[in-house]
């Protein structure tokens, strides 16, 4: 059960309303996470700006795969439902690719290096080894790309932590528990 209620539209702070309305228009409904997050215009709008900027980083399959890997490590069931849905419907990842991403891998060798690196970042609190850096560089990622991977890990962790704290009601299809995949 949610620890903080999603705001009804008439209760959304004025400074959050334009951002929330834009997400609602793009998604087709107002996700509970966003309606809850909108209670703090400062935090919500800062996250939305980061989200908008990071939507230009790497490619959608890699971004969604990183989101799945990070959300799995952080144990965020809400984000796993969202990323599984977007990975299937927007990134066009197969069900097997989604499960593989949750486990920190990908079928594509370059994407696999990025997802493994992202998982190492979250598992080590960023204290990756030189070998980890060399592996992702050898896969074809520049230092600028690696910075984008780090930023994606941080952005996904922010929503993971938010959702783990406030536990909004799930509004995307449920996913198989991690222990079952």
Automatic annotation (TrEMBL):
One Pfam match: CMD
Origin superkingdom: Bacteria
GO MF annotations in UniProt: peroxidase activity
Keywords: Oxidoreductase, Peroxidase
Protein known as: Peroxidase-related enzyme
Organism: Rhizobium calliandrae
PANTHER family linked: CMD DOMAIN-CONTAINING PROTEIN, SI:CH211-175M2.5
Domain Carboxymuconolactone decarboxylase-like: from-to ranges: 47-103
Gene3D superfamilies the record matches: AhpD-like (1.20.1290.10)
